[in-house]
Automatic annotation (TrEMBL):
Keywords from the named record: Aminoacyl-tRNA synthetase, ATP-binding, Cytoplasm, Ligase, Nucleotide-binding, Protein biosynthesis
Lineage, top ranks: Bacteria, Pseudomonadati, Pseudomonadota, Alphaproteobacteria, Sphingomonadales
Provenance organism: Aurantiacibacter aquimixticola
Annotated function: Catalyzes the attachment of glutamate to tRNA(Glu) in a two-step reaction: glutamate is first activated by ATP to form Glu-AMP and then transferred to the acceptor end of tRNA(Glu).
Keyword Lipoprotein belongs to the record: no
Pfam families the UniProt entry points to: Anticodon_2, tRNA-synt_1c
Protein name: Glutamate--tRNA ligase
Motif position, 'HIGH' region: 21-31
Domain of life: Bacteria
Amino acid sequence: MASSDGGNGGEKRQVVTRFAPSPTGFLHIGNARTGLFSWLYARHEGGKALLRIEDTDKKRSTQEAIDVILDGLDWLGLEFDEEPVFQSERAERHAEVAMKLVEAGKAYKCFATPEELAEMRNAQRAAKQPMRYDGRWRDRDASEAPADAPFTVRIKTPEGGETVIEDAVQGRVKVDNREIDDFILLRADGTPTYMLAVVVDDMDMGCTHIIRGDDHLNNAFRQIQVIDAMQGIEDGWDRPTYAHVPLIHGNDGAKLSKRHGAMGVDAYRDELGILPEALFNYLLRLGWGHGDQEEFSREEAIALFDIADVGKGPSRFDMKKLLNMNGHYIRAAEDERLAALTVKRIGPDADEALLAEAMPVLKTRARDLNELADGAAFLFKQRPLEMTEKAAGLLDDEARSRLSSISNRFAAETDWTIEALEATLKTYAEELDLGLGKLAQPLRAALTGQTTSPGIFDVLVLLGREESLARIDAQVAA
């Protein structure tokens, strides 16, 4: 998609996008994808990506939630080009725009009382009419109201025609202007509504492209009324290009919920052990694609992403696919980095250097950092090992007798390597006319306390001669 000309006679403007989360909770996975798309499009076009914190709901907006959002965006690698704008700090500017519209005859003071509005809605409900403001103060003079009476400020919306949006994702969408009532810009206490604050901030930030969820599409028809009304009053009020991205659904097609994985970005990192590059890549592929390619570097994503290529239909979140992708990135990650991320998941006895040494073996099958930690836990267990029920079931008298022989043979081994240990155990299995697994499984139980682990010879080498023999002998003596 070409950069927006903003109605300036074909002159292209620098693309400016914004991500505008509300800090009333965690950074939801759907919001994170919207932020990613907005950031990527700005980078793709060589423009600016801005961040706005919509913190006007003072009862629900907290500094903790703001910190969580900023931390999550930083973890995903979404750096913005200017300091965040805090919407709550701009209330005076919002009110200024509302009063300019009143002065220009594009908005008006409405003195209707709450009781009158309730009576109006009841009458509309009884008549089975759409419930919307009836414009009773639209053409009345404010002098008709009692002195010092409280008022709201409402915009004068067009009484005919239609509002059309050429949406970069949804295509051409329109609404009959008669369906848009004279909505409130300023409340009776002088505070701005969401509809006003969002538009003023978008325009003052110079946003050329508004990329957000398609649950905001209806809001766009109203927000355009404010933009159009301000044209001729102030410069810079050009309609932006809208791109309303379909929401994410669960794998079953239902609205995304906690049972599907609708958590905050911080939970994917802290609880599930997802790497940032994996979540970045997975979110990128939710609704956008480039042929059959599944994995994209950050540079590739920037080069290839275009908001016009986002699909119109909802994408489906699949936790299994995310974990598989995460496994791919774990296998590609540096061992030292994985060790640093995993060590705190194991406990105070974990040795980061030993973890890094073990990573080439541990990461081959792990899909997340928790699985890495579980797979590595055997390295740091204290004797006597705590046994799982299945592992304990493998250690009967016959198994312990064989473990005693294995211990003697390993103790005589001068070359403590995978190849040498494997050859020694295979020779013993052949003497007993047994498959190697008949010896390896009890040995695994003795060494790890579990029935699953990396390859048994990897385990022996990672534990080392002294610890391996001590664990085997402890089970022989049990």
